[in-house]
Design brief:
The structure is a homodimer.
Chain A lengths: L5 H15 L10 H8 L3 H13 L3 E4 L2 E4 L18 H14 L7 E2 L1 H8 L3 H12 L4 E3 L5 E3 L4 H22 L7 H18 L1 H4 L3 H13 L5 H20 L4 H20 L3 H27 L2
Antiparallel strand pairs in A: 1-2, 3-5, 4-5
Chain A binds a DNA duplex through helix 1, helix 2, helix 3 and helix 5.
DNA sequence: GAATTTGATTTTAATTATAAAAAACAATAT
DNA sequence: ATATTGTTTTTTATAATTAAAATCAAATTC
C-alpha cells in the first residue's frame, strides 16, 4: 500500500455514525453532501459507500442509498494512530543529540533515525533539510547527512547571535508606552524571581522554566518572523542543555536569578544603558555555561 | 530503474580511458586500486569490469583482467548530465517567484516545479523544507506547499531583520584594528562608488552589483553561521528585487550611492553614532524601495 | 430546462518497492 | 602475512504504486 488509508478509515467510521442516527429504510444524503459534511473528497465517500454496500449495511443502486440495517461495533475500522508532529520530532531529535552527546561529525542515516523516532523517513528528511538552513546539519556529498552543531564554536556563535537578538529586543522594549502589557508581565515575573530566590534551596530545579519564561517575555515584543524562528532554535538548544547539565545547578541558578533581577530592574527603571549592560552580563554567563557543559561532554 | 546509474557510467568511461592508455595483453590493476583511483566503490568497479568483459574488451578470469583490444569511441556511455546545484535551484526559484510575481498564498506543487526547474522532485522537496524554516513557504495540511512570502508584511520584517544584523556588523567593524583588511576594502569600495557616481548616466545598471559587494564587505566581519545563513537569504531577495524592479532605477541608484558614501565615510572616520545613523538611513530607503516594488507588483 | 447528482477519468502527491552504490565480511591467492 | 577477490548485508535515491483530490461530462430529478 502506497499511502495510509487513514482518511478513508476515519470517513468510514463517521459514515457509520451517520447511519446510526438514521431510520432503517431511509435514504442517505448525496455523495457531495456527505463529502462536504465530513470534509473529505467524493472519492473517499464513494469507496466508503461501496464498503457499506458490500457489508450489506446499505443497498446502493444509482443515487438510491437505502439503509438496510444499523451498523454495530464490530463494523468500525481501527482508527488511525496520530503520527508525531514536526515539533515533537524536533524535541525528540534534540533530546537524542544532547542526552547521548552525539559528537559533531556523526553521520546520520535517515532509515535508522526514522525507525528510532517512529516517523516516516520522508518526514525526517524534510526536518533535516530544515536544520541544514541553520547550519546544524549538512548533506554529505553522496547521500546521507552529517551532524555539525554542538561544538564549542557552535555554542559561541549561537550565543553571540542570541546576544544580538536579545539586545535588539531590549532596545525595542524600552521604547514601548507605559500601557503596553509587557510592563505588567515584567513586574509579575520579577515577583516570581523573588519568590524563587527565597526558596532556592528546595526549588532550584524550577529555574529552568522561569528562565525560559523570562526570555520569552523579553523577546515577545519583537514581531518578526525571522527573529521568532531563530529564537525558537536558540531557546530549544539552551533549554535542553540546561536540562542535561546538572553540575553546580543550584549555584548557577542562584547567580542567574540575581542577574535576571538586575536586568529586570534596569528595564523597569527605563534605563537603557544599564539594561544593555545587565543583558550582556547575563547572556555572557549563559554562554560560559553552555560552553562549559559542551566541553564537559564532548571531551570523550 | 530506481536510481540513476550516473556513477556507473562515469566510472565505466574512466575505465575505458585507463584501458586506452595500456598495452594489449597487459593486466589491469586490482579492483581496490581502481576503486581508489576513480573514487568509487568496488561494486561499481566490478559491474564496469563485467561489462568490459561482456563487450569482449578484456578477459576477466579471477584476478587476471587482461586487455584484449583497445576501446573505441562507440564503447563510451552517454555521460550523465549534471543536476543543478542547490544554489542554482535557489536562484531559479526566486527568479521565478519575482519575475512572474507569483502571489502569496499560491499552492506550489512539487511535481510540476521539479519538471519546470529540471531537478529531481526529491531535491525540490528538500529545498522547500529549508525555506519553510525562514517562513517563506509552509506545508499545506494535506500535502503540497504554499508560498507565504513576498507580501508587504514580509518585506517589512525582512528589512527590520536586516537592519538588526547590519547594525551589529557596523558596531563590530568599528572595533577592528587599523591593520584589519576590511579598512582597505572599504577604502577601495569608496573609490568604486566615486567612479560610478561620475558615470552614473551610462552605468547606472552597475549599481546592483556594487551594492551587493558593499553589503558583503560590511557583513563579512561577522563570523557567525546563523548571521551568514540569514544574510544569504536577505541579500538574495533584495538582489532579485533590484533586478526586476526597473522603475526610476537611475534616480534610486544615484541616491543610494550618496547614502553609501556617507555611510562609508562615517565608518572610515571611526564615528559610531554617525555610522549607525547613515546605516539606518540607507536601510530605511532600501526598505521603502522593496515595499514600493512589492506593492506595484502584487496589487493585481 | 436548470440545478443537482452521479459516473468516469485525470491529476497529484505520499509511501513503498527496488535498483544502485557502499560497506562489511569471508575466502582465496600471491 | 598481506593483498586481492568473492559474497553478503546495509543503505540511499529514485521510480512505481496507490490513496486521495480534482475535474469533467453525462444523467437524473424537480
Amino acid at each position: 500500500m502506497a499511502r495510509t488509508d487513514d482518511r478513508f478509515r476515519n470517513a468510514y467510521n463517521a459514515l457509520l455514525d451517520i447511519c446510526g442516527g438514521m431510520e432503517i429504510g431511509t435514504q442517505l444524503p448525496a455523495e457531495t453532501a456527505l463529502a462536504d459534511r465530513m470534509d473529505v473528497s467524493r472519492t473517499i465517500v464513494r469507496t466508503a459507500l461501496q464498503k457499506l454496500d458490500s457489508e450489506q449495511l446499505i443497498r446502493w443502486e444509482g443515487r438510491r442509498k437505502t439503509l438496510v440495517r444499523k451498523p454495530e461495533k464490530c463494523h468500525r475500522l481501527e482508527p488511525a494512530e496520530t503520527p508525531p508532529s514536526g515539533e515533537e520530532l524536533e524535541r525528540q531529535f534534540l533530546e537524542w543529540v544532547l542526552r547521548f552527546d552525539v559528537p559533531a561529525g556523526t553521520s546520520l542515516n535517515v532509515a535508522q533515525l526514522s525507525r528510532q523516532f517512529a516517523v516516516p523517513a520522508h518526514n525526517l528528511q524534510e526536518f533535516l533539510a530544515g536544520l541544514a538552513r541553520f547550519g546544524l546539519v549538512e548533506r554529505r556529498p553522496r547521500g546521507g547527512w552529517r551532524l555539525l552543531g554542538f561544538t564549542a564554536e557552535f555554542a559561541v556563535e549561537l550565543s553571540d547571535f542570541r546576544l544580538v537578538l536579545e539586545l535588539n529586543a531590549v532596545r525595542q522594549l524600552l521604547t514601548l508606552p507605559e500601557s503596553h502589557p509587557v510592563w505588567k508581565k515584567l513586574a509579575d515575573i520579577r515577583q516570581e524571581h523573588e519568590a524563587l530566590r527565597k526558596d532556592i534551596q528546595s526549588r532550584y530545579h524550577d529555574f529552568s522554566k522561569l528562565d525560559e519564561k523570562f526570555h520569552t517575555v523579553v523577546n515577545s515584543v519583537v514581531k518578526n518572523r525571522f527573529v521568532v524562528e531563530a529564537q525558537k532554535v536558540i531557546s530549544l538548544i539552551f533549554h535542553y542543555h540546561y536540562m542535561w547539565d546538572k553540575t553546580r545547578e543550584q549555584e548557577r541558578n542562584s547567580a542567574a536569578i540575581e542577574e535576571h533581577l538586575e536586568w529586570i530592574d534596569a528595564m523597569l527603571a527605563r534605563d537603557l544603558a544599564r539594561s544593555e549592560a545587565a543583558a550582556m552580563k547575563h547572556l555572557s554567563t549563559s554562554k560560559d555555561t553552555l560552553l562549559t557543559s559542551l566541553r564537559g561532554h564532548n571531551l570523550v
